[in-house]
What we know:
Blueprint lengths: L43 E3 L4 E2 L6 E5 L4 E2 L1 E2 L6 E7 L6 E2 L4 E2 L13 E9 L2 E9 L2
Parallel strand pairs: 1-3, 2-5, 3-6, 4-7, 8-10
Antiparallel strand pairs: 6-9, 9-10
Amino acid sequence: MSKARDLANVVVPSGAVVGTSDSQTLTNKIITGLVADGSITEEVYVLSGTAIDPANGTIQTKTLTENTTFTDSLSNGQTVVLMLNGGETYVVTFPTMTWVTSAGNIAPTLAESSTLVIWKIDTTLYGALVGSYV
């Protein structure tokens, strides 16, 4: 004997439904147990201002033309790869951050072209210099 399904408690999503061969943009969805079977493409963003915001892209590039003070808009669990040109020429000031280095919590010396990874856990912002890409 099968149990009758209570359809009054079924939540039906709103919006357009696509078929299995169509693509769909998901916004504000929580996906648990995600398995990516293929490549993942991250958005690359040319940073024109000074706000490091993962909403713009998880890989950000900036060519420095003057001394620069960055701010961050990262939330818990977010990461940004930041590629800087001109780090040897101009002074760069980062937001309050715990630097992960072999020497301890010490801000790195930037080269002409430097790659950094910046991430946030709870309210602590972390940063690590990956190295020079030239």
